[in-house]
Every structure is written in structure tokens, then in C-alpha cells.
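Exam review. A common question shows you a sequence with its C-alpha cells and asks you to describe the fold in words. Practice with the pair below. Do the first one on your own.
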Amino acid sequence: MVRLFMENDLGILIRRFLEHLEIEKNCSRLTIRNYQHYLDVLMHFLSEENKDKKLTVNEITVDVVRRFRLFLARQKGSIGEMKLVTQGYYVIALRSFLKWLIKNDYKVLQPEKLDVPKVKDHSLKFLDAQQMERLLVQPIPSSKNGFRDRAILELLFSTGLRVSELVHLDRDQINLKTREFGVIGKGGRARVVFISKQAADHVAKYLMSREDKYKPLFIRDLRPNEIPLGDEKVRLTARSIQRLVKHYVKTANLPVDATPHTLRHSMATDLLRSGADLRSVQELLGHKNIATTQIYTHVTDARLREVHEKFHSGNK
């Protein structure tokens, strides 16, 4: 009886699931941390409902999930109630956990019975050529971090890197002569990214301005006579880059509330408007499924309209 309970103990199985994400799935630390948070919230919810009762995976029923969803909907988010898209992350994590349990022969709730809340489509944010140019020239070369910040903006727009991919770059990883390098992206997928001539020039200027020997490509401010630290102690964080982009968007007085991911969208939009095909853009962005890349069809639709206007006999 004790063994049967141990095999179904919810806390133990959540821990094993997270270990599975780390070892077998090779998920990033951020993904594992997020999944742990979502499942910990579920554990806390179930504990409140089942005072002094040991929790097992059998507690997860359709009715329990419905109450959990209601609980989430009433939680406060950064602005008012928790956003629907955030609620969806909890459901996705729970479904992944249930799928893993079924794969390991546990008789639990079928994950297909849990619907991920549908979120209304939002317009895709990207910067046009003029807005992008205004943003890129905001860092002042003579300022403290001018070379670094310009290199970051240029590289984000040139490569379409995710901010998490950018911060993990080391300087020996980039070949500025061939203007290409490899990255391991979302889901552990490897891809080659390419650097524009302009971006390569600015990255080179930034590296020439550095006097340190640290491995990370982009590092935080170092205080004068600061005691040498490990590479990861000086590596610029994703949050710092997000704040950096936000700052320059504001100084450029752009009408779009752009983020590092907006520059990724802007890169894809720029390529498609210049004639690149959707499949090539999919590979450059590292999308597993082309359906993800199809959010940019507004660009190809616009190009098709131009073709129609120019060549259809009825428009002459």
C-alpha cells in the first residue's frame, strides 16, 4: 500500500517529470523553471482543497482542472486579472505532465480533455525600414555603452535571434569574416544564422573597444579595478537587453512599443518584403513548423497585391 502511494505521489512525479525535461528533452533552464512554477501552483491549489491529505495524480480530474482554471482567472496579473495567454501556459504545462504520465503507464486524466484557452489574434508588431533605421542610430558611439548597444541592436535585426539566444553568445562563436555562426535555439534545434555587413562592422567595433578577456559576446558594465569574475557573472542578461531596447525605442520616439522580439519580426518582414520565400525565412528563424512562420503572411499578401496591380490586364 505504501509502495502504491509512493508510485502515485504527485510531488515525487512532478519532480521526475522535471528531471525528464532536463535530461531526455534537453529543455532550457528557463523552460524547466517555468514548468516547475506552473505545477507548484497546481500543487498549492490542490493542497488547499485537500487539507491534511496526501496528494496523488488521481486528484487531477476534469472537475478539479475546471476549478483550478477558475482560480487562475481570478488571480491578479501585472495589469488587473491574469491574462488568458498566461492561464494557457498553466494548461500547457499540465497537459505535458499528463502526457508524460500516460507514456509511463499511469492511469490519469487524458490530456486531450483539457482545452488551452483561445487567445484573440493580435496584430503583429514590427518596425518598417525608416523606423528601424531611426532605432539603430540611437546609441551614441561616444557614450559609455554606445558601441555595445549599437552592436546588440544591429545583431538582433540582422539575425532574427531570440533574446535568449543572443545573451548566450560567446565572442569566439561568431565568425565576422564569413559573417555566419551556429546557435542552438528553442527545443534544442540547431541552425545557422547570418550577419549583415553592417551588423558585422558594428560588432567588430564593439569587440575592438573591449580590453577584457571575458568569453561572453555582450557583457555588463565593469567597474574600474573590479576583481576578475567568472564569465557568467559578467554576461549581459536577457532582462538587461529588454530594458536596453525599450530605452532606445523611447529615445527614437517610435509609435511601436518594440521589444527584442519585435526586431525578430522586423527581420522576417524585411526579408519577405525583399522577395524571400516563406520556407527560407522559417529556417532562418528556427521555426519547427512553417505554420508558425505564417504569421508573416500579411507581408506576402501585400506583395501579391502589388503583383496583381502591376500585371493584371484589368488594371491597365
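Now try the second one, then compare your answer with the model answer below.
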Amino acid sequence: MTLSKQPVLLVHGGAWAIPYDAVDAHQHGVRKAAEAGWRVLEQGGTALDAVEEAIAVMEDDDTFDAGRGSFLNEDGKVQLDALIMEGSTLQAGGVGCVERLRNPIRAARKVLNDSPHIYFVGEGAERFAEEHGIALCANEDLILERELVRWKDAKKQKFLTVPPEFAGPPMDSHDTVGAVALDAHGNISAGTSTGGTLNKAAGRIGDSSLIGCGCYADNLSAAVSTTGWGEPMMKLVLSKWAADRVEMGEAPQQVAQAAIDRLQSRLKGHGGIILLDSQGRIGLAHNTPRMAWAWRRPGENADGVQSPRG
């Protein structure tokens, strides 16, 4: 088996000011997600399946801003976005502003598999999901008391405590999840899922579920997933920018750092990024205090709540 055929999985659980008392939960959460995705790859499954399973685990984990336990929008509701993309065909599926789906990544996968379209939003996305066998839930089922308290505090503060070096939402309100994978067939895939920014405007969609912004996959370049403040990433089309650099011959780790440097220098943005190319090389970088991540390769695994150094 050549190097390019050896499976690799890399996941992230958000890049932000993860509190010290939440570090263990984040590390445990990304470890579980990586284990779930890795089981798929070990059994000869596709990168697409591995990405879906890894992300679904994090959507089910109250620790993360995805699925149940997500941040609340200005109306006090959970509103979710997700995208999944496959690198050999460039097929993709996404959902945005859904309020009654426990696992938006599974709905996104249904869009990829079963629709000629790429993207559904709101009630249309929920209708599509239900018609394709995904049960709906009440929005209240996705809300935690912890997030109600956080939301009420945000309403009082009106985000007046933004660090002066960043012109945007504070770094304590991002916890998007994502995964990138390479399977034994040599195909790569990427996915991202999020509840968005704390106290976001109703109907706002960030970078996470938009092709080329928060997520991208192409066998000829790289699979990419980002996390952080979405608006600057959308302006820079950051995932596609990073993938293009890999296609031009740059190493994924070099590209990951360059992408975050560009995000900060050009727009004072903050967040993190993970990359994986079809050779199995990975990249990971962030400019936030912490980032949760985990990876698996044959005979090797690692996880943490900081970027690996060196």
C-alpha cells in the first residue's frame, strides 16, 4: 500500500478561548470523534463516511457548538449550518439555518447523495431531510441551560468586551467542529458543522457551510475545514485559497499557517484551520488561545487542545 493509500483522519472541535475547565471535555470529545471516524477508515470505508461519522459524534456532544448545546442566536434559538464535500467528484451537500435537526451533517450528506442541488436552508432543508428519512426534533431539545445563561450574559454585555486586537465577535464564542479524511482509495473529503456565533442575527449563515469558505475538498489539492469568526473567512474564501496553495505545491502545514496569518493580517480575523492532502500530509494552525484537535494514521494517533508544534 502506497503512502497516498494509507488512511488519515484529522478533526477539530473549535478554535477559541477554550476555558481551562473545559479543556478535558474538548480533548475527550475530539478523541471520541476521531475514534469514530477512524473505525470507518480501518474497515475500508470512504473518507466521506468517516467525516460524517466523526462530525456526528461532535454534534451529539454537548461540549461543542454544533447540534445540541450550540450557541443561541439573538432570538434565543439554536440555528445550525453544515456542509460535507467529496474530493474526487467535487460533490457537496449543505444545510443552513436549520432549527429542528439534531445532526445537520447527516442532512447535508443526504443533500450530497440524493439531490441535484447543493444547498438547502431553513424549512426547505428540514422538509428535505424529513422526506429522506431524518427525524425532526423540537428546537427546545437542542437548547441547554448553560447556553441560555451564556446568551443572557451576551445580551447584557452586547459584546463590549471584544479584545482590541480583533474587530469582531469575542474569541469566547466559537466552537465549530470539522473533519477531513483520506481513505484507502486515495480520495479526500471534508465537513464542517456549527451553531454559529453567540447571539448572531437570526438567519445569519457563516463560513462553515459555504463551499470554499469554511469547507472544501478536491483530490487535486486538499480537504479543508475552518473554525472561528466566519465573516472574514467568507471575504477571503479561505478554504479554497488554502487548497489552491497546496495544489501549487506548498506543504499543508505551511499553507495552514499562511492562511491564518492572512486572516489576521488582512482582516484582523481569528480562528483555526485543518488541511489534508491526497498524500496524507496534514496542516493545522490557529491564532486563538486554544484549538481542539485530534488525528489518526496507521499506527499513530494524537489529540490536544493546542496546535502541535514543530
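Model answer, second protein: The CA atoms of residues 96 and 121 lie 4 Å apart. The first helix runs from residue 23 to 42. Full marks require stating both points clearly.
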